[in-house]
Amino acid sequence: MLSVVRLASVLLLALGGLASARCAEGQAPPVPGRYPITRADVDFVTGMISHHAQAVVMANWAPDRTESRAVRVLCARIVNAQADEIVNFQQWLEDRGLPVPEARPMPTKVLMDGVEHEMMMPGMLTDAQMTALEQSTGVEFDRNLLTFMIQHHEGAVSMVNQLLASPGAAQDEMVFKFASDIYADQTAEIERMQQMLSTF
What contacts 24+ positions apart, CB below 8 Å, involve 146-150? Predict the structure, then answer.
């Protein structure tokens, strides 16, 4: 998996190469925040609202189900960070006159061969997994929460990678920041949760 520094370097080089190419064509250098947005950008931001919403639901179960201070602190941080990011995602969509979904876990809509389909995003928990987590307590909850949240975070990192692999995507300044922050925060939390899981 790419380190955060490596990811930032790759992204900056890609954007720098695009700027050089446009200058060579006689066009003015691109201005940050003025890049055209793509369908991949919109799908990423829209999908991440639902993705984060599920993490917030999971983390909000912790106070009533765990006896671990470390798990409670982790979950409080997840709720605070991801709830704030959801507001930012929704504002980004609203500012561009795009549909703004509610902050609740639900499938995302994707176009395949011109037909719209609903599908779960990478890392999203199934109904059975959510039920298992909600019904567990104590150490069992801690193990389930960490295992499922690692899965969930890995899915978010996968969504960032999919975005960056899409032609022309993540050139908008805010989308680039969203993707960079999610990659940095969630890869760090994955490592922390793996260490915590080994203690239970």
Answer: 146/71, 146/193, 146/196, 146/197, 146/200, 147/197, 148/58, 149/55, 149/58, 149/59, 149/78, 149/189, 149/193, 150/190, 150/193, 150/194, 150/197
